[in-house]
Amino acid sequence: MRTAYTSTSDRTEDRYPSRGGRSAAIRERQDPVVYAKKDEDSPIAPTLVRRYKKLGFLLLKGVFSAEEVTAFQAESDRLRRDPGIQASGERITELGSGDVRSVFKVHAISPVFSKLASDTRMAGMAQYLLGDQVYIHQSRLNYKSGFRGKEFYWHSDFETWHVEDGMPRMRALSMSIILTENTDNNGPLMLIPRSHKHYVVCEGETPENHFKASLKKQEYGVPSDDCLSQMAKAGGIVVAKGKPGSMIIFDCNILHGSNGNISPYPRSNVFIVYNALSNRVGAPFCDKPPRPEYISSRACIEPITPLKPEKLNE
Asked: Of 28, 54, 146, 190, which sits with the fewest C-beta atoms within 10 Å of its C-beta?
């Protein structure tokens, strides 16, 4: 299924305006969190579905076996060192150190991660929670090297995907597989529970080719200090720690980020972002050209049809 949305004439109604000279603000979410209708069809326990709806994320332990994790780790190391990926621009390095920060489009360049992205434990759950066929909006490996790994500042993925990619509604989610142990000390993912129920309007104008800078250090599309303080006061901050093979599922609109890693212990995770087929991207809402295909799928969208997954226990 091919799509090509590039002009403002293709744009749908902007239900979530942000940036463009607007003042920082907190708005109510207009979309559901869970689109599924029947608990009995859930690939995970209904209690987990309700927890996800309430908090905006889940941490599931031991989803993938040690053997599977070993294969993911080997492929992650291979992609980080692949000279062809370095030349493609799909490998992002840290400011200053030059250490690898991210490798994008891993579902398309790696047979191992292509298979993972279609795994029923992930795609089946995404399809259920989003209540639609799903496709991969974005995939990436995130590395945070020991001693010099930089932070990922607080943000809502949806705010960026909406403004810069043209994602119309909040009908997407991320799944992150922990590849190396995420501890208190090596810059693990932090989330603000319940923040997904509000939309935080960000200040500033979106620069030209913003992705070139934001993938290294994001300075636009980040909430104000006051908005962050209000969200954290209401929901607190949770650190998503876990062993290799654990999986973090989080709503597209939840506020999250991570500290820098000054410990000797590197951290790496693989992310797969699923979007509902009915929610595929259109024209960006910032009057700028779309971001590259490796960051936001739009030229070729292929729905995933997973087999019925086995239930996962708490």
From this structure: 28
What is the CA 62 to chain-centroid distance, rounded? 20
d(CA 123, CA 272): 9
Q: Is 130:175 a contact under the CB 8 Å cutoff? A: no
Tell me how far CA of residue 180 lies from CA of 11, 73, 192, in angstroms: 40, 8, 23
> What H or E segment, with its residue span, contains residue 104?
strand 100-104
Over residues 219-237, the mean pLDDT reads 96
Cα(first)–Cα(last) distance of the chain, in Å?
36
Mean pLDDT of 50-74: 96
Is 304 in a helix, a strand, or coil? strand
Which tens digits make up the pLDDT trace of 141-185?
A: 999 999 988 888 999 999 999 999 999 999 999 999 999 999 999
pLDDT for residue 122 is more than 50: yes
What is the H or E stretch that residue 52 is in?
helix 46-55
Contact 165, 297 (CB under 8 A): no
Residue among 170, 196, 166 at smallest CA distance from 274: 170
